[in-house]
Amino acid sequence: MRTVGVEEELLLVDPDSGEPRAQSSAVLAHAGRDVAPRGAFEEELHDQMLEFATRPQADLGKLHAEIVRCRAEAARHAREAGCAVAALATSPLPVTPCVGGGRRYRWMAAQYGVVVHEQLVLGCHVHVAVGGDEEGVAVIDRVRPWLPVLCALSANSPFWQGRDSSYSSYRSRVWQRWPSAGPTELFGSAAEYRRRVAGMVATGTILDEGMVYFDVRLSPRYPTVEFRVADVCLDARTAVLVAALARALVETAVREWREGAAPAGHSVSLLRLAAWRAARSGLTGELLHPETLRRAPAAAVVDRLLAHTGEALAADGDLDRVREGAAELLRHGNGARVQRELLERTGSLREVVAACVDRTQAA
């Protein structure tokens, strides 16, 4: 069974006003005082953000428990620093982001200007183990059409600078401003992947391989493929659902590759449209069907993803769990729908943030 790990970026907020707080250094200082720290907490591009990474897990129950634990530890360290954490992919309230002081972040601010200062967006990255670069690139080529569905499931960023953006995942639209972000052409081999990445770095437009922000890429640090399309999920269970589907997509792609099945030849232009539609609609309305790239009800597209990955999910013992999780999302809504319903009920974005702070720590 392939292992899977999750990286989550959390928003640091004032516990009273709900406004983002530039407190990552203080939170990390408290985290560093633990005698035996168990959560891998790191700074991020902006001081209003905190990132953690789980350990690789084969069992989804253990992955869920670790996400819950890491969120709880992040909340504890945040309280010690006078703030709180929220699993929100954008801030509902207006914010002026503070760029971190590291050399890398200073280079990015000088290179990209306002793009950096508008990148206070928070994602969920899923790492799935692969047996080498050739297998990894075979996966990247074959999962491309299914990635927008993961975005729709995880969508958790309807608000931007105090207003409704009209998108379910506005984070993903802001993320596309990076010059290296988005869907990719077919690579065909690890050698071609490496050639293209080296060519991108050689332009000087990006600093290094770590700034190749493909929707899914070979991890620069681990023997994994890294899925980068999901919003940070409001509920830990949704993060596990996305991780389970990512692992099943990897296993399904590897089986297709070993059987000699060619990847779908969808153009990047059409994949961009599918990604836009997923960001706009989420699970409300229609998506572009991954196989036909024609409009279809979101529920039908999710069902097709479950059918596509069904054998892999069943082999890992995850099929029932994933079916139940997907059905629950379709019934009750993803984070974007929850946030909008909270605003409709309370009339206050501050109350939306407060409720999301509580939900971030729920099991």
From TrEMBL:
Keyword Transport in record: no
Any single Pfam family the record assigns to this protein: GCS2
Enzyme class: ligase
GO BP annotations, alphabetical order: modified amino acid biosynthetic process
Source taxon at top rank: Bacteria
Enzyme Commission identifier(s): 6.3.2.2
Recorded catalytic activity of this chain's protein: L-cysteine + L-glutamate + ATP = gamma-L-glutamyl-L-cysteine + ADP + phosphate + H(+)
Keyword presence, Nucleotide-binding: yes
Keywords of the record: ATP-binding, Ligase, Nucleotide-binding
Signal peptide: none
GO molecular function, one term: ATP binding
Function (record text): ATP-dependent carboxylate-amine ligase which exhibits weak glutamate--cysteine ligase activity.
NCBIfam families given in the database record: gshA_cyan_rel, PRK13517.1-1
Family recorded in the similarity comment: Belongs to the glutamate--cysteine ligase type 2 family. YbdK subfamily.
Protein name stated in the entry: Putative glutamate--cysteine ligase 2
